[in-house]
Amino acid sequence: MENSNQKNKSYWDKNPMTYKPFDDEFSERILDNQEDFKYLNDFYLKENFYLNSFFSNLYNSNFLEGLNVLDIGCGWGSSTFHLSKFSNKVTSIDISPVAVEGAKKNITLNDIKNIQIIEMDAEKLEFPDSSFDYLFSWGVIHHSSKPKKVYEEIYRVLKPGSKGSIMVYNKSSLRYWLMGIYHLYFRGMIFKGYNWSNVTKKFTDGYYHKHYIPSKLRKEFLSIGFSGVDIVISHYLGKGKILPFIKTDSYLGKILSKKFGYFLTIEFTK
User: Fold this and answer.
1) Backbone angles phi and psi of 12, in degrees to 5
2) Of the candidates 88, 164, 155, which has an alpha carbon nearest to the alpha carbon of residue 127?
3) Taking the alpha carbons of 75, 78, 80, 83 in that order, is the dihedral positive or negative?
4) pLDDT (tens digit, 9 = 90+) per residue, 42-92?
5) In the chain, pLDDT over 90 holds for what percent of residues?
6) How far apart are CA 102 and CA 63, in angstroms?
7) Which pLDDT tens digit goes with each residue over 214-234?
8) CA-CA distance, 93 to 110, in Å (whole number)?
9) Is residue 241 within 8 Å of 222, Cβ to Cβ?
10) What is the CA angle 100-25-37, rounded to 5?
11) Which letter, b or e, does each residue of 206-242 get, where b requires 16 or more Cβ atoms within 10 Å of its Cβ?
């Protein structure tokens, strides 16, 4: 019988990338050439205003210059691809061997040399203490069976004074509550054994999918020992909608996204 981590790994082996909500045609393709990976890597930056801003700032600064970066949950390597342009070295890990092979293909086709990609469980990082200068993880750790263990491991492997940026799901978002109400009450899931704890599997991916209240997430990071903890709220861009009738890129959509968006990005210092 599979334990919880094995089930989590099995899920991501079968679903190493989940872009179906954004592009049905592309999601059905097998990525095997540089053009496909260029589409994937470009698309990655179009998904969210925080990522646009984050990488734009890297283009205009030397913030990561000379630093060794750890990328947790690299998937098919798009985050790694972009981080490698600005840093000394990127070490990327993923729990799924399928994703790791895809990321390696991405990096090989783009002929990038300053990257190491490793199959590894973030709950048990196989690195010495104080190994890295910066931590990046986008939409990954909320899928762990023990997210706090991952945060503690991150604290251990970061050097004193190092910074990081992590995105997780926002429980205080419009999407969480409206989708929960829709599936529980309008689709009758509440009569099929579902509740607020497990109905999230109906509108997000992953074997696990934890959602956070911003204030509690901040307290958790402070309790581990991090300082300078700041949280940015954001949402999907492009064709995304903050509500069924309000596009994310509209004036009202942008305002609501910054208050009730689905993504919490927590920035911190060790």
Assistant:
1) -75, -20
2) 155
3) negative
4) 878 876 677 888 888 887 888 899 999 999 999 989 999 999 999 999 999
5) 58
6) 28
7) 999 999 999 999 999 999 998
8) 18
9) no
10) 35
11) bbbebbbebeebbebbeebebeebebbbbbbbeebbb
Instruction: Report the C-alpha gap between 225 and 24 in whole angstroms.
Output: 42
- C-alpha to C-alpha distances, 149 to 135, 143, 175, 249, nearest whole angstrom: 15, 12, 27, 36
Q: Map tokens 């679903």 to a residue.
A: 15
Residue carrying structure tokens 């890295």? 132
Question: Which amino acid type is present at position 214?
Answer: P
Query: Residue written as tokens 């909320």?
Result: 142
CATH number listed for the domain at residues 4-169+210-239+262-269: 3.40.50.150
| For the chain, domain boundaries | 4-169+210-239+262-269
Structure-block tokens of residue 119: 């199959």
d(CA 106, CA 112): 9
Name residue 118's amino acid.
Answer: I
SS3 annotation, the chain = CCCHHHHHHHHHHHCCCCCCCCCHHHHCCCCCCHHHHHHHHHHHHHCEHHHHHHHHHHHCCCCCCCCEEEEECCCCCHHHHHHCCCCCEEEEEECCHHHHHHHHHHHHHCCCCCEEEEECCHHHCCCCCCCEEEEEEECCHHHCCCHHHHHHHHHHHEEEEEEEEEEEEECCCHHHHHHHHHHHHHCCHHHHCCCCCCHHHHCCCCCCCCEECHHHHHHHHHHHCCEEEEEEEECECCCCEEECCEECCCHHHHHHHHHHCCEEEEEEEC
